[in-house]
Design a protein that fits this description.
This protein has 333 residues and is α/β, with parallel strands linked by helices. It is built from ten helices and 13 strands. Strand 3, helix 2 and strand 4 form a beta-alpha-beta unit. It is globular and about 65 Å long. It starts with 13 loop residues before the first strand and ends in a 13-residue tail after the last helix.
């Protein structure tokens, strides 16, 4: 593995980067902060050894990290495969938007996927199907549904004893990462995807667009300066959905799976603190956009295979959409 450990001031103060010259088809900007254990798992799920049907030369991963007491360990950074670059940024601002926008600027791929939360595992077909989804249109916006590990939303489950230890046991029960699709067996829809596949989503924690569309969008809005970014990911998703002459693609059989950590909305904070943060986030959104946030009403194209483990979520989605088949009325004849 060839890596240049000397800082490149044109990019960022602390960059570990490879020497590949050809531009990849896909760049992934992954933001991590104070989540070393979970980020290591996420990075593993983005490795070409885990991802199916894609070659390491097809993509790159830019791992953007701001300072914290729980940085990625040096040995984990040293072990990164050649298609991954690690950037330790000297930035004390609490919002991830600057790290995201810097990662977009540093990226070399024609298509750019942003994962704002580094604690989200992905299924083995995500990268291949992102590229296939982009093949449907030069203006495709390709998204992946979100899930939480555990039987219920983690912000609810934490009050009942859910923890990183409980989650480790869950992952061990499916022998992750041997079969990444078994994550569906130990998960539930996230809040942003709670309506299932066929109702509007609030956001995507794995959203990919051609570089030209990111340029047109202006990246992530840096006015969202609350810790964690407030509603910036929801704002980005909505603004992307509102772009004209685009195709919104949902990878039906793939998923991102949130791992429990000290997140601002899913971590072990008390309910009153979470409610206060959400209230401030919505107030900021309204101040910036002049209206309350609403899920974008946008038709989607559903793409990809449907692994057996996903079928129960398909049934749930049909029911949530109100499409459940009604029993035929008996004839009186």
């Amino acid at each position: 593995m060839n890596k240049d450990h000397s800082p490149n001031p044109a990019l960022s103060p602390n960059v570990t980067m490879n020497h590949r010259s050809a531009a990849p088809k896909l760049s992934i900007v992954l933001v991590v902060h104070a989540m070393a254990e979970q980020a290591i798992n996420t990075i593993r799920s983005l490795d070409s050894a885990y991802q199916a049907g894609i070659h390491e030369d097809d993509y790159e991963v830019l791992i953007m990290e701001n300072p914290s007491e729980h940085l990625l360990p040096e040995d984990a950074v040293e072990a990164l495969p050649d298609q991954m670059r690690y950037v330790l940024r000297e930035d004390a601002r609490p919002t991830p938007v600057y790290a995201i926008n810097e990662g977009i600027e540093m990226s070399r791929g024609h298509n750019i996927c942003v994962m704002i939360d580094g604690a989200r595992l992905v299924t083995p077909g995500v990268l291949r199907n992102l590229l296939l989804g982009h093949g449907l249109s030069e203006r495709a916006i390709v998204t992946v549904p979100g899930y939480h590990l555990g039987e219920e939303l983690q912000q609810t489950a934490v009050a009942k004893g859910y923890s990183t230890a409980v989650e480790r046991a869950l992952m061990e029960s499916i022998a992750w990462p041997e079969d990444g699709y078994r994550l569906f067996d130990i998960a539930c829809f996230s809040g942003a995807s709670a309506g299932g596949f066929f109702r509007p989503h609030w956001e995507s924690n794995c959203i990919s667009m051609p570089r030209a569309l990111w340029t047109r969008l202006g990246g992530f809005d840096e006015h969202f300066d609350l810790p964690g970014g407030g509603l910036v990911n929801l704002d980005t998703y909505r603004r992307a959905c509102e772009l004209e002459d685009t195709l919104l693609v949902l990878l039906l059989g793939e998923g991102t799976f949130h791992q429990f950590h000290g997140g601002v909305t899913t971590g072990g904070v008390v309910a009153s603190q979470r409610d206060d943060y959400l209230a401030r986030s919505h107030e900021q959104y309204e101040a910036l956009r002049g209206q309350r946030f609403k899920s974008p009403q946008r038709e989607k194209v559903y793409f990809g295979a449907l692994p057996h483990a996903v079928r129960r979520y398909l049934s749930q989605s049909v029911a949530k959409a109100g499409w459940a088949r009604q029993p035929r009325a008996e004839s009186g004849a």
